[in-house]
Amino acid sequence: MFRVFQHHISLVTLAELIADSLTSFLAILLGTLTLAHFSGDAGSFGMATALRAGLGFAFLIPLHCGLVGVYREGAIRKTARAKLGRAVLGCLIAAPIAYQLAIKTSVDGAQAHHLMGFAIVYLMVGLVLVRGLLLTAWNGSLVQQRVLIIGTGNEAHAVAADLKSRRLRSHSVVGFYPAGESVLPAEDKRFNIFPRAASIDDIVSRHDVNQIIVAVKEQRGGNVPMDQLLQARIQGIPVMDLAAFYEQTTGEVPVDSLKASFLVYGRGFAQDRARIIVKRMFDVVTSGTLLLLTSPVMLITAIAIKLESHGPLIYSQERVGLGGKGFMCLKFRSMCNDAEKDGVAVWAKKNDARVTRVGKIIRKTRIDELPQLFSVLKGEMSMVGPRPERPTFVAQLREQLPFYDVRHSVKPGVTGWAQVRYAYGASVEDALHKHQYDLYYVKNNSLFLDLLVLFETVSVVLFREGAQ
């Protein structure tokens, strides 16, 4: 994993981003050389101009690939073919913009058209070749983390199963080292369980282990061989507990394996004055800009709601915000006017019968959330943060989910880390998964993570991948 500020980015994602950027840059250079070869003269541009255009391509192409979700990790898994399709779509969207900003400003006349044509051909061929090479590299274990799991209990095998189910090709489990309460017998041939008498140092050497995960909840009383783990750590082998492992690999903090000490002593929770000021400036600028850009959409939405059904345009509902204080959350009305006429709070459901035809559209596209931009300007909400819940649900979830009130240490957001990582949520179980993502955001929040969430929200809206 590669750490940017407080956020962890997988090496696979980083490699894809760098590869696409280099491919875009080389496409312009090769296009320039091809044009010079066929024309016999580079004309009004030389290599310096090509370098400027190449740098523009190297920025704009990956930017738009990211906007359509090429580099997005999380609950929405994409096959290699699907990711290639998204990359091609991102290039097609970026091409006219890159042409205007990176080529036409430096190259005149027909040469600009010719250069663009050659560059697109090289770019498309490069995307296929480079992604094929990357896929071969991941499958060939060229950059694989070889993991030794300490423990043979349910937690240990949950880690192994999770690595397999999430298709983390960069991780390979070499085996389990007995510690804590054993669940599987050592003679079970389905699993590579090392004998307790074996030395962890020898296992690390013989099996090229470069990561150790301690998957034992109770580590006191000699359940874990701390002296051997210390020796491995001194030799440069990363040793992580369950919470740290899941935080790095999945972008969430699992509460079932979480201790308060992890939150108390761990890194993160940047809530100093500088962070608060920067976040507020970011919120004001972003929400003000979005209000100007989306004002025509909001006007059309208001007309559509009025034409379809009677009732108010804006639906206000009490939600719990910063410090556990209540505020009125604003939305375009997407349900029939008497959706909760009995006054009992009900979880929103997938394909909820209470949702109107217009409501289905604006909920899927997140248009119903646009009035909350006014709440951001007012200071009640932030652009990015945990989604605010209703007081009734907060009282319920506070009793069922550990550390639930930690989410109220930051302002609630119009969008959030959970919304771009978890596909749908309409139950206590879904709330648990979202809560774990919210804990990650609160612990690792930064301007970079805010930008990343807004960036990924675009693909969530475009491809209807996020939660309602």
Provide a quick synopsis of the model.
The chain is of the alpha/beta class. Helix content is 53%, strand content 10%.
Spans where pLDDT lies below 50 across 5 or more residues: none
Nearest-angstrom radius of gyration? 26 Å
Tell how many strands the DSSP assignment holds. Answer: 10
Spatial arrangement of strands, main beta sheet: 4-3-5-6
Shape, principal axes of CA atoms? flat
Count of runs of 4 or more consecutive helical residues: 16
| Structural class by secondary-structure content | alpha/beta
Determine the strand fraction and express it as a percent band: 5-15%
- How many domains make up the 3D coordinates? 3
Report how far the terminal alpha carbons are from each other: 30 Å
Major sheet details: 4 strands, parallel
Mean pLDDT: 83
| Series of H and E elements | EEHHHHEHEHEHEHHHEEHHEHEHHH
**Helical amount among residues, as a percent range?**
40-55%
Characteristics of this structure?
468 residues; alpha/beta; Rossmann fold; four-stranded parallel β-sheet; two-stranded antiparallel sheet; 10 strands
Textual characterization of the structure:
This protein is α/β, with parallel strands linked by helices and 468 residues long. 53% of the residues lie in helices and 10% in strands. The chain contains 16 helices and 10 strands. The chain has helices at residues 11-39, 47-67, 80-103, 109-139, 154-165, 200-206, 226-234, 242-250, 260-265, 273-308, 357-364, 372-378, 391-400, 417-421, 428-444, 447-462, and strands spanning 2-4, 7-9, 145-150, 171-177, 211-214, 239-241, 314-320, 326-332, 382-384, 413-415. The chain is flat, with a radius of gyration of 26 Å.
